[in-house]
Amino acid sequence: MQPQRIKKRAILGGTFDPIHCGHLGIAYAALEQAGLNQIIWVTDRHKRDPRQQSRVEFEHRQEMVSLAIAPEPAFCLGPASPEDPEAGYAIVTWQSLQQRYPNSQWYWIIGADAFSTLPKWYRASELVEACEWLVAPRSPSSPPVNYPEETPLLMEISPLNLQKGRPKLNSTLGTNPSHPLDHTALIKTEEICQQVAIAFKTRQIHLRWQILQSQTLPMASTLLRHHWCDWPKIRTWVPEPVQIYIQTHHLYQNPQHPLPPHSSSIPSL
């Protein structure tokens, strides 16, 4: 009997409240750049982000992810996590998926700001050695916010305060300067990655990472939640099946930050 071929699988986790085209763009960039066979989307059951005033339940968020990723065969919805908050830790998620998919080479897709907190994650050393990290650049215009030190699956959290004069490490595969990335975002992301790599090097742990060659888009689930009612144009940030689901189930229907007429505070795409 021929041994099973090892497949390249990536985990993309988040609260997805709601999932939007920015998430999908990052996933497609990772799929192509790392030559992945499959991306497993893991919806965090427990919303730990202090900005999240939404009361959208896990089942709704999970269904929206399912609808958004359905057209892509390489995308897979991860299993629902148990209700125990401890089960939401990234290392526990990875161990569960490893048991389900034993013949796998593992990657973790993550935003640069969430990646900056990796040294503080629960059992981070084990997780770092198990995965290669695919880091998505974040828009330099993202507002700074303070967050808890440990947020296992969140994608939208603030970056570390970068220190100057530190030694630099190279990413595993480097970056592609020919791709039209936002230069400021790329530099910021590179600095974050170098800093995280140095933090683990002091623990004698080798961090494997590469920056995704994806555009930084002015999208955030926070804006979608806040302005779904009063700014119809923003609804184009989510795939059509998700738009229909949100309208059908009356999600995000209470405007929390109404915009004045002709406001320009929502960035145009």
Automatic annotation (TrEMBL):
EC number annotated for this UniProt entry: 2.7.7.18
GO molecular function, one term: nucleotidyltransferase activity
Catalysed reaction equations from the record: nicotinate beta-D-ribonucleotide + ATP + H(+) = deamido-NAD(+) + diphosphate
Entries under Pfam families matching the protein: CTP_transf_like (PF01467)
Keywords (A to Z) from UniProt: ATP-binding, NAD, Nucleotide-binding, Nucleotidyltransferase, Pyridine nucleotide biosynthesis, Transferase
Keyword Metal-binding: no
Protein role: Catalyzes the reversible adenylation of nicotinate mononucleotide (NaMN) to nicotinic acid adenine dinucleotide (NaAD).
Family recorded in the similarity comment: Belongs to the NadD family.
Name listed for the protein in its UniProt record: Probable nicotinate-nucleotide adenylyltransferase
